[in-house]
Amino acid sequence: MHPPASSSFLLLTGMSGSGKSIALRTLEDSGYYCIDNLPAELLTESIHSLHSQEREAPDRLAFAIDIRSRSDLAQMPEWLSALARQGHAPQLVFIDSGDEILLRRYADTRRRHPLSHLGLALADAIALERQALKPLRSLADHIIDSSTMNVHQLRREIIDRLGVGDELPPALLFQSFAYKRGLPPDADFVFDARMLPNPHWHPELRPLSGRDAAVRQFFENDPDVTAYLAQTQAMLDRWLPRLRQDTRSYITIAFGCSGGRHRSVYLAETLAAHARRHGWPDATTFHRELD
Fold first, then answer.
1. Total number of domains in the chain
2. pLDDT digits (tens, 9 = 90+) for 15-45
3. pTM above the 0.70 mark?
């Protein structure tokens, strides 16, 4: 009897354009050691190498094999049986989509099909790929049809179907910046703090930053800053949980002011501390003009 297939070792395959890359990135974000476009002939060798005595094997593995291994796909059932006998039985996950959906996706992205070098029309390349992958599809432990899914829905389906629900939560970053040096390109939220009172105009506070106690006291005594904080906290408390459900890997919340030293730093630090007390214990800060 073969050992039961384990979700700690996943073999990912399926139709080109169906979302295999998205699935593999989801697994990587969930803590899997991932190898993309692994030549099928190297499957057994890679497993043996990763489980050699000279190195500590990863707890969770995910390999992606696609139609570029077409000449070796006929041997895959034999190789999978051999791995199972050796105690390395993978779960085989097949990502699929309807032909019309695949045609539309290729038209939208203008990417070339992996079999286009054969001189085939796109529809014929898809048909040839489907025929070549048919034996693997029949062996699959999971068949996931992404035809009607967007990126976020496919990520959620991968997490739920494969039981990798202990994926890492999004990394939450509160960042400060100076508008005169441009907006952070990776920010998901940007808040403008330039309408708030500026410690720069107080000589005793000018050399300090929003991290210092005197500057913090200055802001805490101002009713406009108090209102700004309360309203921003309420918004983030309402919508950050939705972003967590959206299976993002990173969330960046940026606060800008004129110099990126006082107002934006204070807001980023204060709201990061609030987030750490309310379900985001690993929330961090980055002050672009200070750090």
1. 2
2. 999 999 889 988 988 889 898 877 777 777 7
3. no
